[in-house]
Structures are given as structure tokens and as C-alpha cells.
């Protein structure tokens, strides 16, 4: 292991460019299709019932297969998994852009999810093994964290531009140049340390249980949105998810080469990071959705103007990640960046609960979005780095996959949960104000805004909980590093030396 520490790869900064490009493509894909969806639906004659599957097919395949993808990159080699994921993602995107009917589009979205699940953990774990010196690692993760956070917003902007000026199909085709450039670059500059490989066999029962369990969980929230929380199918899916994931944990305790070594989860720092990132994703993805609807439906913004409205948030996210997070990460314990960051973002959301039919963008929405961006950027950056902190190189893929899993599952839960809350608040408001209403259209808009702000209040609560988790769990033991690692049965020699506090 010593050569990994003394001789850092001279081309690692070039490698970072291509890794970041691939990450941008995957994150961007989670939102770019949202804005293009109405046009694609009209063009291909997709029914209202099947419409959500364009989003869900991607989320299910991606969220369900992430742990498997992470383990594959540990076994197979991260560079190989990364390049394969890129090529597959480009092919699936070409298929989606050329779709002639609903089935072809949904199949392409599921395939994008499958290759995304191979690509995303490989990208993050390549960073973990290429950058091992604390200050450099802080910089590399600053760039990566900014892209991971801002990609969703970039997706909204590009989605708006393509839909308005070109065609919804370009929201798929745009991935092809990204993937080709990133794959060509990765092949030429990435050299993966050989010690990082994990030669053990693949845990097939673990793969099946984890995939089915995560798919049931994500699909359960999707059905809750369409059929209600008390519907038989919704309850059945949640019960199935609990049973499958419980069985998965039991299997992982007993098999020789587990898919998810429990030592990765039981470290309290990493556990805290996964939970707080998942909660933050719930709050954030839900909010993106409401603001998009509010600006387009209530305020009558065009898709492009809606996308551009998110630009200041992205700028602040990048600032928080690269200027605040990176500079302070090696000096301040991670929880003192994560907790205040999440709280600042929650304060920004409180501003956004004040929206009305004629709210000023400059006075209310803009400062709210900027506070959110700055807070999220500051918090995401140390979280991304801590998630792979002190992990044995052979587990880096799985530890990275858990970051993506918590964000993906959180995003799917957030969209469904907050949507359901908003819909019922909207209906209640409409019913209770119907009697005295003189203008039904006005009342409809008022009800929608009431529904959105109710859901955003929930998001504020969830984000505050995320800050609390970070404060209580992350970095709880003084020094943070070797003590936590050795408790998991790793020696200090095994662990990648990361952040010194």
C-alpha cells in the first residue's frame, strides 16, 4: 500500500475532468427529461398513467442496481466499469432519442438506469483511490461535490432550452458527446492502482435481495403517489421492501464475500453521512419539482425562463462547494460544515414557503434559491469525501455506491412523498374555499400555491432533521479517522488516509 501514498498518479487532475464530466451526465439525466416530458408525451401518445414511468423506469433501475454496480467496480476494476458504463449509457441515450413508441422510450430509460448504476459508483470510487492526500482530496471532492449538486439544476436549464428551441429528443442525444469524450479521456489518462481490486466472488443472493428490496421501496413510494398510502399495493410493496432488505442484512452477516460489507455501514461517520444525504435529497428533489410547476403553471414562465431561474442557485452551490467546503474541509470537522450548510438551505426554503400568486422573483425566490445553493454546496462537499473516508480500497466501490443509493432513493421518496402532501393540501384548500369563490380559476391557482408551500414546510423539517443527524453522528469521535476504521476490523495500514482533523 505504501506506494499508493507516496507516488500519486501524475495524471490524476486530468482524470478528474473526465470523471466529473461523467458524473454531470448521470446527475443531469435525473432532471433533464422532466421538462421535456410534456412534449415527449404528446409526440409519442404516452398515456397519463404511463407518463410517470419515463421518470420511474430510470429511478428504479438506477436505485435498485447501484450496490451491484459498486461491487462490480470493486471486483472488475473501476476503470473498466467506468468505461463500460459510459458506452452503455450513450447507447441507451441514442435509443431513447430515437424512440418511436412508449415501450421503446421506457426501455431506453431503464437501460440508462442500468448503466448509470455501473458508472456512478465507479466514478466516485476512482476519485477515492486516485486522490489520497488530504488537501488534494478536498479540492477533487470540491469539484465533484459541486457537479453532483448542481447537475440537477443544469438538467432543468438544458431541458428547457432543448424542448423550446430544438426537440425533446435532444434531451437524450446530448448524453452521447458527454459519454464519448469522457470514455476516450478515461481510457487515455486513468491509471487505477492495482491494490484497489477486490478479487472475491460475487454475492449473488445479496445482489438479488438488495436489488428487489430497493426496487420495492422506490416503487412503493411511486405507487403511494398515484394510488394513495393506504392502497393494498402500496402497503404490500413497503412490507416486501422491509422483508427483502432485512433478509439482505442477514445474508450479508453470514456470507464470506458480501455485496455490502457491514463494516462499511456500521462506521458511525459513514452511516451518518448516508442518512443525512438521503434526507437532504428528499427535501431537494421535491422542491425542484414544485418550483418548476409553480414557475411554469402559476407564473406562466416558459421552459427556458424556468430553467434559467435556477441558475443563481447553481452558481451558489458551486461557490459553497469549491470556495467554502474545499477551503475549510481540512481545518474544520465535517459536521461543522454539514449541519450549518443544511440549516442555511432550510432557511432558504422557509423563504420559499412565502410564495403567492404574484410573488416577486427578485425579493423572495432569488434569495431563497441562493441560500439553498450555498448551504447545499457547503454541506455536500465534505459529505461526499467522508462517505469514502477510511474505507479499505477494496470496498471503495460499494461505499461510493451507498452515497448514490441514498441520494437516488431519497430523490424518489422526496418526489412521491412531497407530491402526495402537496396534492392533498391543494384539494383540502379548494374544498374549504369553494363556497365563497367567485373566480374558480383563481381559486385553483391559490389552492396549488397553498399545496406547494405546505409541502415546502415539510421539506424544511426534513432538511433540519438532516442537519441534526450530521451534528450527532458525523465525526462524533475525536479525530474521526483511524479509531473508527480499526473498530471495523480494519488496520490503519488498510485504510486510505484521508482527512486529518
From TrEMBL:
GO molecular function, one term: transmembrane transporter activity
GO CC term (a single one): plasma membrane
Membrane disposition: Multi-pass membrane protein
Domain of life (superkingdom): Bacteria
Alphabetical UniProt keywords: Antibiotic resistance, Cell membrane, Membrane, Transmembrane, Transmembrane helix, Transport
TM stretches of this protein: 15-37, 52-69, 81-104, 110-131, 143-162, 168-190, 202-222, 228-251, 272-295, 307-324, 336-355, 361-384, 455-476
PANTHER family, alphabetized: BLR6921 PROTEIN, MAJOR FACILITATOR SUPERFAMILY MULTIDRUG TRANSPORTER MFSC
Protein name listed in UniProt: DHA2 family efflux MFS transporter permease subunit
Native organism: Streptomyces luteoverticillatus (Streptoverticillium luteoverticillatus)
